[in-house]
Write a structure and sequence with these properties.
Pfam families: RNase_PH, RNase_PH_C. Residues 39-168, 195-258 form the Exoribonuclease phosphorolytic domain. GO terms for molecular function: mRNA 3'-UTR AU-rich region binding. It is found in: Cytoplasm; Nucleus, Nucleolus. The chain is α+β, with helices and mostly antiparallel strands. It has one domain: GHMP Kinase, N-terminal domain (Ribosomal Protein S5, domain 2). 29% of the residues lie in helices and 32% in strands. The protein contains 6 helices and 12 strands. Strands 1, 2, 3, 4, 5 and 6 form a 6-stranded mixed β-sheet that branches. α1 (2-8) packs across α2 (10-18) and α3 (102-118) crosses α4 (150-162). The protein starts with a helix and ends with a helix.
Amino acid sequence: LSVCFRTVEPLEYYRRFLKENCRPDGRELGEFRATTHFFSSGSITTADGSALVKLGNTTVICGVKAELAAPAVDSANKGYIVPNIELPSLCSMRFRSGPPGEEAQAASQFIADVIENSQIIAKEDLCIANGKLAWVLYCDIICLDYDGNILDASAFALLAALKNVQLPSVTINEETGLSEVNLKQKNPLIIRKHPVATSFAIFDDTLLIVDPTAEEEDLATGTVTIVTDDEGKLCSVHKPGGSPLTGAKLQDCITRAITRHKEVKKLIDKVIKSIKPK
């Protein structure tokens, strides 16, 4: 009977749980799903850094590929960071094969904004020789299993993968003008900020629940994602339409996002410590 009711009247089914301050999966309204991730430089052999992140059932993998290129004329002392999110048909029945859909494009733009606004990496750090040579970091994030909240998982995977990157030493031979790559000498990227995304679904225009599943996203009247950095500063607010939020509700989201940031940072630090070479 419960399964039948959930299928025929999914919103009313959810409302009965929300009245009791819980959700069908057993979580409280403000409770996140278990987050697990690991750095795995060997899992994508062609990548210079990679990470796999699981947020409940939502699973994404991020691979970072570094290439050399000439800096842009108007940014002679800067490199490039190019993010891309793929939501292939294998990860959920809601997506189709072919060119990137609207959701994938919006997610890619969100990650690009996070990179720009948070200054996770200073693009000046990617410059090798002013006006001549710089690194381009292609950050490909692929969803393997979609169960909601792709933005939090993608931001997490990006940060984890970037912290896993080791770039070879590169110099320019003054006599030949050619670049020389020393694969034996590698250095990690300088990660200047640790942006963390925290997403909320809005139910019936007023009720906030964190870390929504795919089903909860479908039933919600809106969503909002808050990105904060190490100092508790706001990097960005992503609100793609839907129910409006009062100032008090938005402040509540920001406060919860700052708390979430501390938890995620602890998790990342713990993983980094465990994989340091002996």
